[in-house]
């Protein structure tokens, strides 16, 4: 049985568990053809930095930062995603990026409740307001959602995880380091580079180490893949943390961790197929649950899974049947008392 076949069988249930019903796993992405390279090379792309810039329409939120002297100029848009729009800006002599978060009505991120489970509210009033869905509660929920990434970046940076350096949060805008490649252009995503097998293994080891450090901080990225890992001159840098998950307070934490690690393994396994036979996600979660995971823990990639799977639907049915039976018996006793 090939590595790809074993991988498809192994990851199907994990992806379905994290993504919900209807999710399917087709195994790792198809392996593209690769030049005989000894280092990573960006897929050719139009480097917009080398072209004359057209005037950029400055968003109101960034104009506020200009008026306050936080930044001096908006250079160009960098990307626009489901959660935010990112711009390249100049602040003094430094070129940075500014992440402008979209309002709740504009965002399209799915299954938000699942990701927010386990996050702590600032106080009982805020928690009640969020639970009732009041206007104040929605504002609090919006503020907490935007602050989540800011807090995570500072915590992870301090823990040694390779993430963009934050430079402050102003009026709903996150100002942070612009990750560049060795030539100073905006860094490509992991899915946009070709890698030699040795480089893929090195990147995988770096990312697994960073996931371990995140887990030791009590955090799981929750949406980690080749699309939110940038390739800088010193290796991979993890980005995009608004959906970060509490490892100890979220019931889906294990499934999300395994999905994160499996996504990275599938991507880098295109260049180093032996990675598809590793079990780093399962190994680190077992150590985390046992309280034995440390930031410098040396993982082996080996793990003996428990093949005895719990049929949750059957458990729920049994619980519901027991409740109905208890209710019927209670009603019967009440009827006898009335007689």
UniProtKB/TrEMBL annotation:
Catalytic activity field: L-seryl-[protein] + ATP = O-phospho-L-seryl-[protein] + ADP + H(+); L-threonyl-[protein] + ATP = O-phospho-L-threonyl-[protein] + ADP + H(+)
Region annotation Disordered: where it falls in the sequence: 1-57, 112-134
Segments forming domain RIO kinase: 44-289
Pfam family, one: RIO1
Keywords in alphabetical order: ATP-binding, Kinase, Magnesium, Metal-binding, Nucleotide-binding, Serine/threonine-protein kinase, Transferase
Biased composition (Basic and acidic residues): 44-56, 117-128
Gene3D superfamilies: Phosphorylase Kinase, domain 1, Transferase(Phosphotransferase) domain 1
Presence of keyword Transferase: yes
E.C. no: 2.7.11.1
Any one GO MF annotation of this record: protein serine/threonine kinase activity
Secretion signal span: none
Coiled-coil features, chain-numbered ranges: none
InterPro entries linked: Kinase-like_dom_sf (IPR011009), Prot_kin_PA4780 (IPR048148), RIO-type_Ser/Thr_kinase (IPR051272), RIO_dom (IPR018934), RIO_kinase (IPR000687), RIO_kinase_CS (IPR018935)
UniProt family annotation: Belongs to the protein kinase superfamily. RIO-type Ser/Thr kinase family.
The name this protein goes by in its record: non-specific serine/threonine protein kinase
